[in-house]
Design goal:
CATH superfamily of the largest domain: 2-enoyl-CoA Hydratase, Chain A, domain 1
Largest sheet: 8 strands, mixed
Number of helices: 20
Number of domains: 3
Distance between the termini: 61 Å
Structural class: alpha/beta
CATH topology of the largest domain: 2-enoyl-CoA Hydratase, Chain A, domain 1
Length: 511
């Protein structure tokens, strides 16, 4: 056969690349219950859709070239749910997927195609950091930082990252730049490994304390979700991308409305306590309003006094920002401010309308908040809110006090405002405000307190706001789903075919 030797060489080199770090290392991963880099791709994408880019890449240094199939990063293009995506899957069996001259060129190429051609970018992280001696000394410095826009995010398309093992170096940086980060419990993400960090600070450091899932999801907020297995992490990426468009110049995809989606909202009084001093889990309210089984919560363990959920209404993507009285009474702290601002940036960048569900006693005041720069975080939130160009709807459920009234889409900070009859629009709890305004306490004059409290409540009711046309409607809570669906129909961005202005596209991904 003509060219038989060349074809045989191609087949041999293909087999070498697909063998990755060799049978022993692959067997060890399997024994640990973890997928390898190529198995992760196969699990994530539509079958048979992967087109690899750089399969035959190798390290540039002669002494390691022979043991660097694909140079430790498997990259290319594929489809997820029928849509094209760009992806990079780090192969830890090849020199710990360390960053090198060659494999960083692969990342750069795939990333640039994703941004230029409007493809979501998926990054499956597991890396040991920079490869030495590739990036050591003057010669090493001469080959890095040659791309002045390497760490620029203009959100042309959504990015999703998975932390699936030790993640240092590029896996850390690209995760911190991503719109969604899921991590497998047991994975670690940090600037440097525990060994390097221990030497730097001259004391032992536990990997979990350095960058484990509890820290990243509950303290720093750099990860949105923690799961138990590789497969669950990859499932989460598929689900996250299902709410977003492939790029920022098209609306999100639409899905059929599941049967029975209208039923739960009719029973909303089973969730909402009649006594406003009692707490409830607002996530159940969101689930009752949204299409059945469509809720996907981001940063569940971080800033828990406010809930941020991607969901669908009438088959269309919506972002819910909802105060959760179950935690800190719904009072907004520094983490909650950061969480909401990040979520607004995500929704506005990818043409997802925002719904505020309000039951907020205000901001959590105190020394700790001031030390964490609460005034700046409150105003960051407001700055971002003024730059949001997707439709914003506000439903005032119960409490709506102080400056938080503005941050949670009060006044002209929303396109439409509706109140439940249970809405309370004071500056603080009525009994407390009577004490502040008139110096009357229950133990001193209970009857006088009752009278003054009744006056305050009349002035702060939903009806007062509706009479001033600061609320466009007062609705039965059981009609909230129908109200939101109908109102979003009126506010669809027809003039730009469902696409916003993306004024937040270069907002920092982490701050």
């Amino acid at each position: 056969m003509p060219f038989e030797d060349l074809i045989k060489e191609l087949q041999e080199k293909t087999a070498e690349a697909l063998a990755m770090g060799g049978p022993e290392k692959l067997a060890q991963r399997k024994a640990e219950g973890h997928l390898n880099a190529r198995e992760r791709i196969d699990y994530l994408i539509d079958p048979g859709s992967f087109m690899e880019s750089g399969r035959f890449a190798r390290a540039i240094r002669p002494e390691v070239k022979h043991k660097t199939p694909a140079d430790g990063k498997v990259a290319g293009f594929a489809r997820i749910n029928g849509r094209e995506v760009a992806l990079v899957s780090n192969d830890f069996t090849v020199l710990g997927a360390s960053s090198s001259v060659t494999n960083m060129k692969k990342i750069k190429h795939v990333k640039q195609v994703a941004c230029k051609r409007g493809l979501p970018l998926v990054l499956l992280g597991e890396s040991s950091g920079a490869r030495m001696p590739d990036r050591m000394g003057a010669a090493g410095r001469a080959i890095i930082a040659q791309d002045a826009t390497e760490y620029q995010r203009l959100r042309e398309s959504p990015w999703a990252s998975a932390l699936l093992g030790p993640c240092y170096g590029s896996s850390t940086w690209y995760s911190a730049m991503s719109d969604f980060v899921v991590m497998r419990k047991g994975a670690i993400m940090a600037i440097a490994s525990p060994g390097v960090t221990s030497i730097a600070i001259n004391k032992p450091i536990d990997p979990e304390e350095l960058g484990g899932w509890k820290l990243l999801t509950g303290v720093s907020g750099l990860a949105d979700l923690a799961v138990d297995t590789d497969q669950q992490a990859l499932d989460a990426i598929r689900k996250f991308l299902s709410y977003l468009p492939g790029h920022n110049m098209e609306p999100p995809p639409e899905y059929p409305v599941p049967p029975g989606s209208d039923e739960a909202c009719r029973k909303i009084f089973d969730i909402l306590p009649e006594e406003r001093t009692k707490v409830y889990d607002v996530r159940k309210i969101v689930a009752a309003i949204a299409d059945r089984d469509s809720c996907f919560e981001l940063k569940e363990r971080f800033g828990k006094s406010v809930t941020t959920i991607l969901a669908r209404l009438d088959g269309k993507s919506v972002g819910f920002i909802a105060n959760n009285p179950l935690f800190k009474g719904g009072a907004l702290d520094a983490d909650a401010c950061q969480k909401v601002t990040s979520f607004m940036v995500l929704c506005d960048s990818f043409n997802v309308p925002i719904v505020f569900l309000v039951d907020v006693p205000g901001f959590l005041i105190g020394v700790e908040g001031e030390m964490r720069g609460m005034p700046g975080k409150v105003i960051n939130w407001m700055n971002a809110l003024t730059l949001v160009t997707v439709p914003k709807l506000t439903v005032m459920m119960r409490k709506n006090y102080g400056q938080a009234f503005i941050n949670m889409g009060g006044g002209k900070n929303a396109d439409e405002v509706a109140c439940w009859p249970t809405a309370d629009l004071g500056f603080m709890d009525p009994a407390v405000s009577v004490n502040v305004l008139y110096g009357v306490r229950s133990e001193d004059d209970p009857e006088r307190l009752r009278q003054l409290k009744a006056e305050v409540e009349r002035d702060t009711s939903a009806w007062g706001l509706a009479e001033l046309y600061e609320a466009q409607d007062v609705i039965d809570p059981r009609d909230t789903r129908d109200y939101l669906i109908r109102t979003l129909q009126a506010h669809r961005m027809r003039l730009k075919k469902g696409v916003g202005e993306h004024l937040l596209r270069n907002w920092p991904t982490s701050y």
